[in-house]
Write a structure and sequence with these properties.
The chain has 4 domains: 140 residues, Serine Threonine Protein Phosphatase 5, Tetratricopeptide repeat, CATH 1.25.40; 92 residues, Immunoglobulins (Immunoglobulin-like, Sandwich); 166 residues, Nucleoside Triphosphate Pyrophosphohydrolase (Alpha-Beta Complex); 136 residues, no CATH class. 38% of the residues lie in helices and 19% in strands. The protein has 22 helices and 24 strands. α3 packs antiparallel against α4 and α4 runs parallel beside α7. The longest helix is centred in the first third of the chain and has 29 residues. One of its GO terms (biological process) is establishment of mitotic spindle orientation. Pfam families: fn3 (PF00041).
Length: 690
């Protein structure tokens, strides 16, 4: 235990921070030096520092000061300073869970002064309560001791100040007296806070749901009244009996950022009861049973024993592709690429030979034809050629085939950028005997190879959902890719997008811009589309709206601009799983002939899903600008739940069968508000797969 003289010395040398007088600044160093209450204590005396670098000594000293500053901020109830320190330092650097010389942690002080905002900030950072308070009696005794010692020290210093003549020592004693008076008041406030506190009420909104065939999830809110003491942890208990006798298990939750817990390793088809209780410094409060009172682990597939739609499909496709490659290794179509005779070389057109000539460069201007352009961007910069042009290569200068068919084929090729050489070898045939479509697709592969070679990059990114056209007959197929790292390239360089747009001199009129000018004007919109296409939904169950419209050569699907890779949707809940009981209820609901089926029984998972669906349908109808009364003719797709990776699932809401797909020329009275676009169905499918 530190001697009284040592305490006086550290208080005399302390720097006083602005605000109320406090001995903290001086005491914090000795809190780290004192071994009275510390766990795994290591002495930092002068001898142990011998041989260490000055930098290491400064670092440790700096961390000691940050620990002292945190105690100071908590005691002065300075929330902003506490948050600043928690953001600036890690819990380990702050020594967040090591008791000081008074046996207290920052969280103890925040709790016993009933400072809920600071206590929550500390809890979210991983703060714990002091391990020395193993019982209510030990905490009460410890606080009484701190109050008594502080009071005794105040009395001693008061007597010294009164009896001594005014001098420098007396002035220092007065400063110590003010500091100890402040600490005495702090300890008294902590003791009063502990004595007046009671155990917390039960948590509220305890909801139980089925998370999978072997797990259930419980979510809950804080108690309405914490009885003047901050809740520091929760306990989740589960059992197969409604009386919880015998209990099957329990879990203590002390990370309070998200109040939920998933109970795993359960038996499918067995009912489990769950209750939750809260804890503060006075102990555990009463438990609160969940709503519904029990849950049965299951999944909607168990209703009819259906296997996952995509089980083994990816592996089967990889195996099939491997077989095709094996068969083509010795195919005669590969011979021209391996050992092409001189006569064969002369039979290839000059335009094709030019693509592989070392002098092949990016195009500066467009003539009538089909072209490929690749947009690589990083932050606000874009890759351009040395002539400050977006990289463009020619595909076909005599293009006259069906654009949409070839474009959709190109988008599929974009899934195999690394296999372009192999695809070229497979498509290589006599140019005089092949069809227009085959010739165009072969030229597409050649253009891809040329772009890859000039840029030195295999992956050209994602294809933009529609080509860029102009009235001069030029067509641009655009690929987009974001570069995450700092890369340098030989034939291209980085320039700011705004600089490129302002410095480029247009060679066309505003009334009839060329495809390149149109691309440059709209490049930010295309980059925004590309970024939004990679966004992922947060885990949960969603209600999606399927609306198609057909044209002569394609079918398009309605999607939101903010997430063009997902159908129009609203979130139903955070739990993506549909239980067997919920799916069985949905099957009954969609099969009844009455317009409005009877509501399920209260306090069941089916009733909760029914209420969630009602809210979601209203929100979705508002989103897509359809009057709610029209929704009575809509249907829920009841064949399956669309599952995306196990964390995101969809229920589909369908218009009447005659309105699912709008035909060309058919009037659609309910046009969605701004913020939507229609994508070709094949493009949407590729985006959804990615």
């Amino acid at each position: 235990k530190m001697t009284q003289q040592m305490r006086d010395l550290q208080l005399a040398q302390a720097r006083k921070p602005p605000g109320p007088s406090s001995p903290n600044a001086a005491k914090r160093l000795y809190r780290n030096l004192s071994g009275k209450f510390r766990v795994n204590y290591t002495s930092f005396d002068e001898g142990s520092l011998v041989g260490r670098g000055e930098k290491e000594k400064l670092r440790k000293s700096y961390l000691f000061q940050s620990n002292a500053a945190l105690f100071e901020a908590v005691e002065l109830q300075d929330l902003d300073r506490v948050q600043e320190l928690l953001k600036q330092y890690s819990p380990e650097e702050l020594d967040l869970n090591t008791p000081n010389s008074e046996g207290l942690l920052p969280l103890d002080i925040a709790i016993m002064t009933n400072n809920a905002p600071i206590a929550r900030a500390l809890l979210q950072a991983g703060a714990k309560e002091s391990p020395h308070f193993v019982s209510l009696e030990s905490r009460s005794l410890h606080l009484s001791t701190l109050v008594r010692e502080a009071e005794q020290r105040v009395n001693e210093l008061t007597a010294q100040v009164v009896n001594e003549a005014p001098n420098a020592d007396c002035s220092e004693k007065e400063k110590q007296l003010k500091a100890w008076e402040w600490r005495y008041r702090l300890y008294k406030r902590m003791k009063a806070g502990f004595e007046h506190a009671r155990v917390p009420d039960a948590p509220t909104n305890v909801h139980l749901s089925v998370a999978s065939s072997s797990s259930v999830q419980v979510t809950f809110w804080e108690p309405l009244s914490v009885n003047s003491a901050v809740v520091t942890k929760y306990k989740v208990e589960w059992s197969c009996s409604p009386t919880f006798s015998p209990p099957l298990g329990e879990a203590v939750i002390d990370k309070l950022k998200n109040l939920h817990f998933t109970i795993r390793g359960l038996v499918s088809g067995t009912a489990y009861y769950v209750q939750v209780s809260a804890y503060n410094m006075k102990g555990w409060g009463p438990p609160q049973a969940s709503v519904p009172p029990f849950a049965i682990p299951s999944n909607w597939r168990e209703y009819d024993g259906r296997a996952p739609r995509r089980r083994g499909q990816a592996e089967a496709l990889d195996h099939l592709l491997g077989q095709v490659k094996t068969v083509h290794q010795h195919c005669v179509c590969h011979e021209p690429c391996k050992n092409q005779p001189q006569s064969r070389k002369h039979s290839v057109s000059k335009s094709l030979k030019h693509l592989f000539h070392p002098g092949s460069k990016f195009l500066k201007t467009l003539k009538r034809g089909l072209y490929l352009t690749a947009i690589f961007y990083k932050d606000d910069n874009i890759l351009v050629t040395h002539e400050d042009q977006i990289p463009v290569v020619e595909i076909d200068d005599t293009y006259s085939c069906l654009l949409m068919q070839d474009f959709l084929w190109f988008t599929k090729v974009s899934c195999m950028w690394d296999e372009i050489l192999w695809l070229r070898q497979c498509v290589t045939v006599s140019q005089s005997s092949c069809s227009c479509i085959l010739q165009t697709r072969f030229k597409m592969l050649l253009a891809i190879s040329q772009m890859q070679g000039l840029l030195g990059i295999q992956d050209l990114g994602q294809v933009f959902f529609e080509p860029v056209k102009d009235k001069q007959g030029n067509i641009l197929i655009v690929t987009l890719k974001e570069v995450k790292t700092n890369q340098t390239f030989e034939s291209v360089r980085w320039v700011p997008i705004c600089k490129l747009q302002t410095s480029r001199k247009s060679v066309s009129s505003p009334e009839e811009p060329t495809a390149l000018d149109t691309l440059l004007i709209s490049v930010q919109d295309k980059l925004a589309y590309h970024q939004r296409s990679s966004y992922a939904l947060s885990p949960g169950l969603y209600l999606g709206y399927l609306k198609l419209c057909s044209a002569v050569d394609q079918i398009r699907v309605l999607v939101p601009e903010r997430l063009p890779n997902i159908l129009c949707h609203v979130k139903i809940r955070s739990n993506p799983n549909i239980s067997r009981e919920e799916w069985e209820w949905l099957q009954k609901m969609v099969s009844v002939e009455e317009p409005v089926p009877a509501e399920p029984e209260a306090e069941t998972s089916q009733n909760h899903l029914f209420q969630e669906l009602q809210v979601a349908i209203k929100e979705l109808m508002t989103l897509v600008n359809i009057p709610l009364q029209e929704a009575k003719d809509f249907r829920l797709y009841s064949q399956e739940v669309l599952d995306f990776g196990g964390q995101v699932s969809f229920l589909l809401l369908l218009p009447p069968s005659d309105d699912v797909c709008t035909a060309p020329g058919q009037n659609n009275p309910y046009t969605p508000r701004s913020g939507f676009l229609t994508l070709p169905l094949q493009i949407f499918e590729l985006g959804e797969e990615k």
